[in-house]
Amino acid sequence: MKLKNILIVVKDIEKSRQFYHDIFGLGLVVDNDGYMILTEGLALQDEKIWRDFLDRDIIPENNACELYFEESDIEGFIKKLESLYPDVKYVNRLMTDSWGQRVIRFYDPDGNLIEVGTPV
């Protein structure tokens, strides 16, 4: 068995596609009317479709999981993030963990938690 994708739920799929392209350089692989697969295996699902499918509420900023990215030039990344998305909501600004890794955590436009850290 092989893990194929990680799926996150989004309110505006095109806005989210643009966010992940602008910030992380992810490209579009599949566009299937409310469901998109981006490069690196990230899938976006329209919230209305997901809610109908599960018959459950969607809870943004639930902090139950995160998308993790690594970036050597963390200061450059933060400048790009704040330039393109100045209203980004941080969980924590740039900090250094006890083992020396520098990380930031923030939410995407739909409340999905993202961590960007320097390579370990």
Indicate the mean pLDDT. Answer: 96
Envelope shape = globular
The low-confidence parts are none
Total helix count? Answer: 3
Total beta-strand segments: 8
The CATH homologous superfamily is named 2,3-Dihydroxybiphenyl 1,2-Dioxygenase, domain 1
What is the fold named in CATH at topology level? 2,3-Dihydroxybiphenyl 1,2-Dioxygenase, domain 1
Reported CATH architecture: Roll
The ordered string of helix (H) and strand (E) elements is EHEEEHEHEEE
Based on CA atoms alone, the radius of gyration comes out at: 15 Å
Determine and state the CATH class: Alpha Beta
Strand order of the largest sheet: 1-4-3-2
For the record, the count of structural domains works out to 1
Instruction: Please report which band the strand proportion falls in: under 5%, 5-15%, 15-25%, 25-35%, 35-45% or over 45%.
Output: 35-45%
Roughly how much helix do the residues carry, as a percent range?
Answer: 25-40%
The description of the largest β-sheet is: 4 strands, mixed
Secondary structural class? alpha/beta
N-to-C span? 28 Å
Written overview of the protein:
With 120 residues, the chain is an alpha/beta fold. The chain has one domain: 2,3-Dihydroxybiphenyl 1,2-Dioxygenase, domain 1. 26% of the residues lie in helices and 35% in strands. It has 3 helices and 8 strands; from the N terminus they run βαβββαβαβββ. The strands form 2 sheets. The chain has a 4-stranded mixed beta sheet. It has a 4-stranded mixed beta sheet with strand order 5-8-7-6, with no helix packed on it. Strand 7 and strand 8 form a beta hairpin. The longest helix is centred in the N-terminal third of the chain and has 12 residues. The chain is globular. The two termini are 28 Å apart.
